[in-house]
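Quick one before lunch.
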Amino acid sequence: MAFESLSDKFQNIFNNLKKKGKLSEADVKAAMREVKMALLEADVNFKVVKDFVNAVKERAIGDEVMESLTPGQHVIKIVNEEMVALMGSDESELTFTTGGGPTIYMMVGLQGAGKTTTSAKLAGLLKKKGKKPLLVACDIYRPAAIKQLQVVGEQLSIPVFSMGNQNKPIDIAKAALEHGSKNHHDLIILDTAGRLHIDETMMDELIELKEVIKPKETLLVVDAMTGQDAVHVAELFNEKIGVDGVILTKLDGDTRGGAALSVKAVTQKPIKFAGMGEKLSDLEVFYPERMASRILG
Ligand code: GDP
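Model of the guanosine-5'-diphosphate complex:
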């Protein structure tokens, strides 16, 4: 199960809180020090941890909580609510182009994050909801990316538009849009080219692609297992090209939870989906409440 390491620590802290009858200010402060340690060890961003702990303390240290019959439960409830707020957002739903023209999503991210797999997963999910998606292979740098997209597209019976790796991504994308409208696709998902590391050429290419294609949403795919690196990547992509939402992949293998807990607070962009496995059906809408209960037990 994801987040087990962080989850175990919270269980301990909460059990100790529940055991106590009345809580003193010192008890709450001590518990919050433990929460802080647990979150830092889970690789949550330092500033995010500080703000989170302060927010909980501010609400937990007060007459209402201390004098309640079950102060421990009360503190736990506050931790839960603040954790939901940390990951939550009102604008986490995908938006679609209405009236004229297909909805275009541009998938961006570093190599290995899961961009190609997630493009297909998302197309599959939306096909089930009645859309007619077209997947577009613009990742011309990773040798197997085009073939990989074709394979997963076939598994989902979703057409894949590709022009090999000798054309520029921007020309592929333009041709794909034309092909898409001729064939009445109402959803076009571009699997753009990543790199192993962030570099200027990649960013410039994506900026140009975004300007010309004008996607309805630019969705950033990051690997949750890379913790703060994922958050850093998200910050940079958002700064340079602007993203509308984040998709966190490999949450199924993430024992720590640092990226899930930091990325929204750091970038102010919602986490829209979570990748929960390698199968094409393993993509879930990201629900902050569900994540918080997975972490807090
Ligand atoms: P890209 O280079 O960003 O296009 O990455 P790929 O789509 O090729 O994915 C890289 C690897 O991560 C592949 O082996 C995928 O099966 C795997 N992967 C992608 N998403 C997930 C996920 O949510 N969970 C797990 N366990 N593996 C994933």
